[in-house]
From TrEMBL:
InterPro entries registered for this protein in UniProt: Cobalamin_biosynth_CobD/CbiB (IPR004485)
GO biological process: cobalamin biosynthetic process
Keyword vocabulary terms for this entry: Cell membrane, Cobalamin biosynthesis, Membrane, Transmembrane, Transmembrane helix
Pathway assigned in UniProt: Cofactor biosynthesis; adenosylcobalamin biosynthesis
GO MF, one example: ABC-type vitamin B12 transporter activity
Places the protein is found: Cell membrane
General function of this protein: Converts cobyric acid to cobinamide by the addition of aminopropanol on the F carboxylic group.
Main subcellular location: membrane
Provenance organism: Marinactinospora thermotolerans DSM 45154
Residue stretches spanning the membrane: 37-55, 272-294
Protein name: Cobalamin biosynthesis protein CobD
Keyword Nuclease: no
Taxonomy of the source species: Bacteria, Bacillati, Actinomycetota, Actinomycetes, Streptosporangiales
Family stated for the protein in its record: Belongs to the CobD/CbiB family.
Length: 303
């Protein structure tokens, strides 16, 4: 609820502060070696999870609820993701390609130069699909399982992947541990996202069965073991075909197509936003029920 009504601050956001601290740590420990990258990941993630455990330790019910609410707000990014996608839709619907290209870096790392309206629409829909898992479902799931340490630890892992997990000359070896850790942390959340996406498909006029079939048929084709699950499920729910050639600076990736529908158009951005909102709500309910079930189970065990 806080994520939906309380916008992220322009300065001093906890995730941004963590990123600055991690960047400072990287400057001190960097070497083009996997072992050094593994040490970096450990030194960055462990304190975040430990801070969460310390905040929970010995807290009464009211304080624990307040700490959990604050941590959950800090790590969730669903509302911001949907707002950025809506701003992209506004620019494209107004025919302002220059403004739309300027907005794209807020959603993904692709080079916006030369992209037309349909290319920008595809990039936006794919970003909404992938980040619905990373920014909402995954932190909620880990929070339900592990409490505040799960919330903060997951966000630290995901932030590190965004910083050093991409393939470049600098991070090919140093970022390997961070990228693999992110793959492990997102394996279950990505599949839960696909399941919730299929269940929510009727919200955008899609079919549950088609979305799930598309996930099963195409999800494994993506170079990421997790992103493809989410993008394929969104493609099936929206009746679209995602994937294709992406340009990241000097690097060009030719990704397999996901889905058997038509290519995305500008109007599909609003549909993707509605679908993501439905998935976010379903994920919150799922996480709350899971946390309640675990609380009752452990309560009985202590009794």
């Amino acid at each position: 609820m806080l994520d939906r009504v309380l916008p992220d601050p322009r300065r001093g956001h906890p995730v941004a502060l963590f990123g600055a601290a991690a960047a400072a740590l990287e400057r001190r420990v960097y070497a083009p070696k996997r072992a050094r990258g593994a040490v970096f990941a450990l030194l960055a993630v462990a304190p975040a999870a430990a801070l969460g455990a310390l905040a929970e330790h010995g807290a009464g019910p009211r304080r624990e609820a307040a700490v959990t609410a604050a941590a959950t707000w800090a790590v969730l990014g669903g509302s911001m993701l949907r707002r950025e996608a809506a701003l992209m839709a506004d620019a494209l619907e107004a025919g302002d390609l220059d403004a739309a290209r300027r907005r794209l870096p807020h959603l993904c790392g692709r080079d916006p130069d030369g992209l037309d309206a349909k290319d920008l629409a595809r990039a936006t829909v794919e970003s909404v699909a992938e980040n619905t898992s990373d920014a909402v479902v995954a932190p909620l799931l880990w929070g339900a399982l592990l409490g505040v340490p799960g919330l903060l630890g997951y966000r630290a892992i995901n932030t590190l992947d965004a910083m050093v997990g991409h393939r470049s000359e600098r991070y090919e070896r140093f970022g390997w541990a961070g990228a693999r850790l992110d793959d492990v942390a997102n394996w279950a959340p990505a599949r839960l996202t696909a399941l919730l996406t299929a269940a929510a498909a009727p919200v955008v006029g899609g079919g549950v069965a088609r979305a799930w079939r598309t996930r099963r048929a195409y999800g494994h084709r993506h170079p990421s073991p997790n992103s493809g699950q989410c993008e394929a499920a969104f493609a099936g729910a929206l009746g679209l075909r995602l994937g294709g050639t992406n340009v990241y600076g000097q690097r060009v990736e030719h990704r397999p197509e996901l889905g058997d529908g038509r290519p995305p158009e500008v109007g599909d951005i609003r549909r993707a936003i509605r679908l993501a909102g439905a998935v976010d709500t379903a994920a919150a309910v799922t996480a709350a029920l899971l946390a309640l079930a675990l609380s009752r189970r452990f309560g009985r065990d202590r009794g």
